[in-house]
Amino acid sequence: VAALDLPVFGTYSVYRAIHQGRQRFLQLGCSQVIYAFAKLVGVLLLINFGLSLENALVVNVVATIIGLACLLPRTNISSRGRWLEQVTPLVSAATPMGVYHFSLLLRGGLVLWTLQIMSVAADTMVGVFVAAYNIARVPALILTTITTVMLPSISRAIALKDEPLAGRHISRSLRFALMLYLPICLVLMAEADNLM
């Protein structure tokens, strides 16, 4: 059942990237909200009607299909020129990022696997580790949101050869990140023991 979600989620990721590149942030944001809401409804149904691995995977597939359906109607994919010539630079740029993100995922998995192998009270320690790890990821998730908006905006400014606009995008995003992260850092410094 899990394998059924791979092509659907892959297609969903492609359409998200298309909308992101065309700066359709409203439709992209609405689709992600609906996608998350569909998962929430699925979790509530699982709680009421019985939790199992197969049902959880089915909920995940259905939620992905719903999120994809929100992006499909107004998307128009057009290809001009030779396909290989267009895709080659994209693959060259995406390969290092793919290796980087795979390394990050592998690092998190290795830490968790090591903890499970070495810990005597595995369930308790793993639960505490996952909770602390998710709290520590919150600032990174916020930064991911900023980069999701900034990348197409800066790319468009550079394509229009408007370097001052690109510079303003970068300076404003850095200013926003500083205003956002400084309170978070202060809270983490003051309440590190309680949070972790």
Can you describe this structure?
The protein is an all-alpha fold and 196 residues long. The protein has 7 helices and no strands. The chain starts with a helix and ends with a helix. It is 87% helix and 0% strand. The model has no long low-confidence stretch (mean pLDDT 76).
What topology does this entry show?
Layout: H1 2-21, H2 25-49, H3 53-71, H4 83-118, H5 122-159, H6 163-190, H7 192-195
Summary tags:
7 helices; 196 residues; mainly alpha
Through-space gap between termini: 35 Å
Our estimate of the beta-strand percent is under 5%
Question: What are the low-pLDDT stretches, counting only 5+ consecutive residues below 50?
Answer: none
The helix-and-strand class reads mainly alpha
Tally of alpha and pi helices: 7
From the spread of the alpha carbons, the general shape counts as globular
Query: What is the percent of helical residues?
Result: over 70%
What value does the average pLDDT take? 76
The number of E-state strands comes to 0
Helix-strand topology string: HHHHHHH
The biggest sheet, with number of strands, parallel, antiparallel or mixed sense and barrel status, is: none
